[in-house]
Request: fold
Amino acid sequence: PKKYQDIYPIAFDADMDGLIAETLRVLRHWMDHGVRIFRVDNPHTKPVVFWERVIADINATDPDVIFLAEAFTRPAMMHTLAQIGFQQSYTYFTWRTTKEELTEYLSELSGEAASYMRPNFFANTPDILHEFLQHGGRPAFALRAVLAATLSPTWGIYSGYELAENTPVREGSEEYLDSEKYQLKARDWDTPDSIAPLITQLNTIRRRHPALQRLRNLRFHHTDNNAVIAYSKRTGDDTVLVVVNLDPHHTQEATVSLDMPQLGLERHESLSVHDELTGETYHWSSNNYVRLEPGRAPAHVFHVRRSAPQTGGTTP
Reply:
């Protein structure tokens, strides 16, 4: 979506071998200084074979080096870049904001494509401040962080996300006002409005639960409110259930109907769910009431355990 008119395009067909050799020299220079992850800007605008040869050469000697494709382009090309060597890829997560959009898109990413394409869910980027964040304020930043951190094994944020910076250069634009691409910015990282504590919590939860470090184990559960999404991940004996209010402006209520076998449970069993965000524990069955309030409790991130049979189950 961006036009870089101040960048001179390189003629890759003039001396492909020479360009590959010089690119490898530059990459290995920075690898010698400890760099192990390279974010490649717009790789889809260069010959695919160029990246295939470069990545293969690097990974032949350094298999731990990761190449992230910053390619917002046609799905077929994004999949091709993953298949020829890019270990991670930007995705359309930024533009998927509704329950239907998220369910459809994540079902695609966690299906057959997961065998070769590893998504990296950036909630924002230096170029992209989505209107959902512009108009949703701090609660929007919080709920999108929960989604990114629990839906994908890898997630990220651009500097300033913690402070809910959401002013565009103009209405209708996804560009930041006072973009950090063009200046150094001083920030008050100690402001009480920062969502940094939430981000720290989410990363702690991710380290604690192997289930969140996988993609193909994602399963969605029914809710009777389109503003509330529920999904789970299970790996071995570790099960995490997430319920998120997708509306940054209003409190939402819903009944969550659990697909119990996907949680490793019988349909008649009850379960103990411990909210890793609040420390509270509830006793649930297959159908459960939730009430999620933006700014206070936008989501539940539950650790699921079997419990003694119990009738019903609610959360305040």
